[in-house]
Design goal:
9 strands, Endonuclease I-creI, single chain, 6-stranded mixed beta sheet, about 350 residues, Double Stranded RNA Binding Domain
């Protein structure tokens, strides 16, 4: 503004000098005025590089904002890149943490996180992140003299912390309800284990949300019950169950018995709870020099004479020789039986 006033002032002087001073003085002043006017008319955005382009936290205090800069050849793309970069700052560490949590549960606990649970957990985390990131705004943009655009995206930490705290409280409340149902109201062992499994998954999501909260508030919400504690409850529940395997096929009986024992269950000859399997085979098909065998494997969980859960999995086996199909099928079942039994025990009861 001062430069603009100076320009008009000098032009006015030049105009007066044309009438009241010597010609060479007026020409000199007019020349200077035109030069300054030209400088005033240049694009102010290209004159200096804003500090936030390289150091956004120097302009937008890191104790109040999460910030990220985007760059592109057009303004809209620069804004999109800024939003994406802020999302990465907020989320990448969280996805790594969620993978670590699910892998730890898969390796160290009897009923580890199944693929179905992991997908649900990732969806929960993505939903929470998306909800929190709705508060992101594009604060400023700038175009360099070379034509490149820059934009800075900001997330106000206070609002993000408020949103995450509400989500954590909701996850804690859901977990408590599921645990109460498992211990007091579940009609059978499968329903009880499934409730605990779901509570465990919610607490995994809660732990990730707490990690996010610590990014924006430096401190999280104290945990009343951890996913590890719920896993202990699941293990204790499994250890109290006596199960028998009702399966005429000795190979299948051995596989199922081994899988149940690995989960910490006591397998006995006769019990109120038993597991049975049904293997359905289709006629092998020969195509493109390969033999293909399509089959399905079903496990049923029976408690006090009533089927309370049943699950079926598709199987596809191939071999160059038809004589190899049976051995490959046996190997396939050996590799997957523990996963099948785990899913049967911890998933939503299905008939």
């Amino acid at each position: 503004m001062r430069a603009l006033l100076l320009c008009f002032h000098l032009i006015f002087i030049a105009f007066l000098s044309h009438f009241y001073a010597m010609k060479y003085i007026s020409s000199y002043i007019l020349l200077i005025s035109c030069f300054l006017l030209s400088a005033c008319a240049s694009d102010p955005q290209t004159k200096s590089r804003p500090q936030w382009v390289n150091q956004p936290s120097a302009v937008y205090a890191s104790d109040q904002y999460l910030s990220a800069v985007g760059q592109a050849s057009n303004l809209e793309r620069a804004r999109q890149n800024a939003l994406a970069n802020l999302s990465d700052v907020f989320s990448v560490k969280i996805h790594v943490q969620s993978d670590m949590l699910t892998q730890a549960n898969k390796q160290e606990t009897p009923l580890g996180v199944t693929m179905q649970s992991k997908i649900a957990l990732q969806r929960q985390i993505a939903t929470e992140s998306e909800h929190t990131l709705k508060g992101v705004m594009i604060k400023e943009s700038w175009q360099s003299s070379g034509g490149e655009y820059y934009a800075v995206a900001l997330l106000e930490k206070y609002k993000a912390a408020q949103s995450l705290t509400e989500s954590i409280d909701a996850l804690d409340e859901q977990s408590r309800s599921l645990i109460d149902y498992s211990l007091q109201d579940a009609p059978n062992s499968i329903a009880s284990l499934h409730a605990l499994s779901k509570a465990r998954d919610l607490q995994l999501a809660r732990e990730v949300a707490n990690e996010q909260l610590q990014q924006v508030r430096l401190s999280g919400v104290p945990m009343l019950i951890s996913s590890a504690k719920i896993e202990q409850m699941m293990a204790k529940k499994l250890a109290t169950l006596k199960v028998s395997v009702q399966q005429p096929d000795k190979q299948q009986q051995k596989l199922i018995t081994s899988a149940l024992a690995e989960l910490g269950m006591r397998v006995v000859v006769d019990a109120d709870i038993n597991v049975s399997a049904d293997l359905s085979l289709n006629t092998p098909i020969y195509t493109n020099s390969w033999y293909w065998l399509h089959a399905s494997y079903q496990l049923s969980f029976v408690e006090n004479g009533q089927v309370i859960s049943r699950k079926r999995w598709p199987i596809k086996i191939s071999a160059k020789q038809s004589s190899l199909l049976q051995s490959r099928l046996d190997n396939y079942l050996s590799e997957h039986i523990k996963t099948y039994v785990s899913e049967l025990m911890s998933s939503l009861p299905a008939l």
